[in-house]
Design brief:
single chain, 8 strands, 18% helix, binds zinc ion
Length: 187
């Protein structure tokens, strides 16, 4: 970022972070966008226009061990259609088309993590999805990624996966169509 560019400032909106179901105060920290009320168990998402708390289903994977703090992911099936993939050297386009021929389950990390971490978790789960079986509620890391960011991050994951192939990719044109994301807490 050059010294002259500053982030676009959005007007501050104050939203009472009180569970709409049981009136419990949510111990929300700046930057967080989703919670489970620790009193009544209601999942809540802060978003939309006007900014408000809305009910959100939060699924906790049965694979999270007792005493462990789970990691939140936005999870949804996505269809990728590659319209053009060119390379400098080698050609893995056939493998690429085969991989994306079927819908894939996308996992976008929703806790605060570095981009490299986001890509490595997301790409590993895209290649080898975790079985999705819901279990009992568990504590989880704060959710900071709003669902509006999921499309761009899923596209980033596709680029990252394609760049990882053994050929030298030059250019990739593609579309990603995602189903609405669900919030899952995984181990
Ligand atoms: Zn509540």
């Amino acid at each position: 970022m050059s010294p002259n560019t500053r982030p676009v400032e959005t007007p501050v909106q104050l939203v009472p972070l009180v569970c709409p179901r049981c009136a419990n105060f949510l111990p929300a920290q700046p930057g967080e966008v989703a919670w489970v009320c620790d009193q009544c168990g209601q999942g809540l998402l802060l978003g939309g226009s006007p900014l408000a708390l809305r009910p959100l289903d939060v699924f906790c994977s049965a694979s999270v061990r007792h005493g462990q703090r789970g990691r939140p992911f936005w999870v949804m099936p996505g269809r990728v259609s590659i319209t053009s993939r060119t390379t400098y050297k080698g050609d893995e386009s056939r493998a690429a088309r085969e991989f994306w021929a079927a819908p894939r389950l996308f996992f976008v990390p929703a806790w605060e993590c570095a981009l490299e971490e986001l890509l490595s978790f997301g790409a590993a789960l895209l290649k080898k999805p975790e079985p999705m079986a819901a279990g009992s509620p568990v504590p989880f890391l704060p959710v900071v990624t709003p669902p509006e960011d999921v499309q761009a991050l899923a596209e980033f994951l596709v680029i990252s996966l394609e760049a990882e192939r053994r050929d030298a990719m030059k250019e990739l044109k593609f579309d990603v169509t995602l189903d609405p994301p669900q919030l899952w807490v995984l181990s």
